[in-house]
Amino acid sequence: MVSNNISSIKTVEELQKYVYATLCSDHELLTDAFPTSETEIRRNNGDVCGMMFCVHGPRTVNFTAIWERQKNRVFFYGPRGERYRQTTLDDSPLALEPSEIASET
Predict the structure, then answer these.
(1) How would residue 104 be classed by pLDDT, with cut points 50, 70 and 90?
(2) Which residues pair with 92 in a beta bridge?
(3) What are phi and psi of 28, to 5 degrees?
(4) Residue 105 DSSP label
(5) Whole-model pTM?
(6) DSSP labels for 3-49?
(7) Buried/exposed code over 59-85 (b: 16+ C-beta within 10 A; e: otherwise)
(8) Which of 10, 26, 80, 85 has its CA 20 to 30 A from that of 16?
(9) What is the widest separation between alpha-carbon atoms in the chain?
(10) Residue range 74-103, pLDDT digits in tens
(11) Which domain holds residue 86?
């Protein structure tokens, strides 16, 4: 599994772009050729604890990534659900309040 750190991501929009570009590059997909979706992940009490990103590829194949807010990590998953990459964000949307996350998605 590939693991790296990134310090340039400061906003949810930058996170969205990074995840999309990484998923497309890792799976040899043309950038801007496939739709995406994002879903907030919430705890039972309603607090946002992360986000799931999905690139809907060819032949109904999906590529996903999960941003874990507490430890500020992004996990990337292949089409069979295997985790193949982890990125730790040094400065990132972790500082954003849940209301800011919701307003940017």
Answers:
(1) very low
(2) none
(3) 55, 45
(4) -
(5) 0.81
(6) EEEE----SHHHHHHHHHHHHHHHTTPPTTSS-EEEEEEE-TTS-EE
(7) eeeebbbbbbbeebbbbbbbeeeeeeb
(8) 80
(9) 39
(10) 999 999 999 999 999 887 564 544 455 444
(11) 2-104
CB 11, CB 102: distance < 8 Å: no
Average pLDDT over residues 66-79: 93
- Which residue has tokens 């570009």? 21
Query: What's the total number of domains in the chain?
Result: 1
Q: How confident is the model at residue 105 (pLDDT cuts 50, 70, 90)?
A: very low
**13 CB-near residues (< 8 Å, 6+ apart):** 104
pLDDT mean across residues, the chain: 85
